[in-house]
Design brief:
heterodimer, A: 167 residues, mainly alpha, Arc Repressor Mutant, subunit A, 8 helices, B: 208 residues, OB fold (Dihydrolipoamide Acetyltransferase, E2P), 2 domains, five-stranded mixed barrel, 49% helix, 21% strand
């Protein structure tokens, strides 16, 4: 197969970020690899259609998220778990509590969040994207994104507290 | 604004990433004057940084980029103008092929199907004519003998075209033709052509 320097450069630049995003969404290393791989293949086939090459990273995240939602629709594996109203009390989590939790536990806790809330929260933590960019990436309104991140963050902090209390 | 309301809004604040976001500017100013809120905000941003660092510390499996690059698909060039050109070329080729097949069939039918014609010319002894170019009154006697003995007979039309003369299938017409050897006659018959050879199946012979 002939070399494709543009493709290879893009993979090297973004595979880590996409993999982490995929892993945070799925909680599975194999699924995250598949999503990352598929996302790059979608790019390879649609590269000529991307209107703004400067936003390729955002485009890749959007594509990975869409792939994830498509896969999820097919599998219907995870139950819908709505988060309670945002007016709940803000949990207090000390930094040392978070320190005691490893990345794998964090992924497990993220997996307990509703997937509509999980994706914006993961982008909130992982990427240096503004709220507008997160909204654009996930194709949801800005207010919805902020609301979902707020609720998801509260839920995650609650889960962190419960995890620490159980230790 | 109460401290609780400020906390709800500052919950989304991530530190330096959001410093330029106008929605946080007033809140950050407010937090400066509220020590409790300030401490809470400090803890929140530290907590954010810790979670972020843990998530960003996750490494992709070794060999993943190589696997992606190795298995990448060959991108299909979506040049619609080229596709249209290709489709047009296929259509033209198909049309030409169909026309050629039609023409070939028609030609075959013409060759195979006999056509009734009149030919005026000299009756030839084909063996002597083809081998030695012998014809005309000086060769009349030889031609008569040869045709009578069974040599193939022919007729050379005024336009120079030569036809092999034959009788009905299975029947020889040499006896009748021998009488007209080297003479100019008009023959009515069915013309057929195969592989470049023209034959006239004799129906009627008229002396010119």
């Amino acid at each position: 197969m002939p070399a494709d320097p543009e493709f290879e450069k893009l993979v090297k630049l973004y595979y880590r970020d996409l993999y982490r995003f995929g892993l945070s969404l799925t909680g599975s290393e194999a699924d995250a690899c598949d999503l990352t791989q598929e996302t790059f293949y979608v790019w390879a086939n649609k590269r000529d259609q991307i209107k703004n090459p400067a936003k390729v990273k955002s485009w890749l995240f959007t594509t990975l998220h869409r792939q994830f939602l498509q896969t999820r629709r097919h599998r219907a594996r995870f139950k819908h778990e709505p988060i309670d109203d945002a007016s709940q009390d803000l949990p207090h989590v000390a930094t040392d509590c978070v320190d005691r939790v490893d990345a794998q536990t964090l992924l497990t806790l993220l997996a307990q969040l509703d997937e509509n809330h999980r994706a914006p929260l993961v982008l909130y933590y992982l990427e240096d994207l503004s709220y507008n960019e997160i909204a654009e990436t996930l194709a949801v309104p800005l207010g919805t994104v902020q609301s979902r991140i707020g609720r998801a963050k509260i839920k995650l902090l609650q889960l962190l507290n419960e995890t620490n209390a159980a230790k | 604004m109460t401290t609780k309301e400020a906390k709800e809004k500052l919950l989304l604040y991530r530190g330096s990433i959001d410093d330029s976001d106008p929605q946080f500017r007033a809140l950050l100013e407010y937090a400066k004057g509220d020590p409790e809120l300030g401490r809470w905000l400090q803890e929140q941003t530290e907590c954010y940084d810790t979670i972020r660092a843990k998530l960003r510390g996750i490494e992709a499996p070794p060999g993943l980029p190589e696997r992606i690059v190795h298995r990448r698909p060959i991108p299909f060039p979506r040049d619609w103008w080229r596709l249209v050109q290709l489709a047009a070329a296929i259509l033209i080729c198909a049309t030409v092929t169909a026309l050629l097949m039609k023409w070939s069939e028609r030609r075959y039918r013409l060759v195979a199907g006999a056509q009734e014609i009149l030919v005026t010319g000299e009756v030839l002894d084909m063996t002597c004519y083809i081998a030695s170019n012998l014809s005309g009154p000086n060769h009349a006697e030889c031609a008569r003998i040869c045709i009578r003995k069974g040599s193939p007979a022919g007729i050379k039309a005024q336009d120079g075209k030569v036809y092999l003369l034959a009788g009905e299938p299975g029947q020889s017409i040499n006896t009748e033709l021998a009488e007209y050897a080297a003479q100019v006659v008009t023959i009515k018959g069915k013309r057929s052509v195969r592989d470049g050879f023209a034959q006239l199946q004799v129906e009627e012979i008229r002396k010119f």
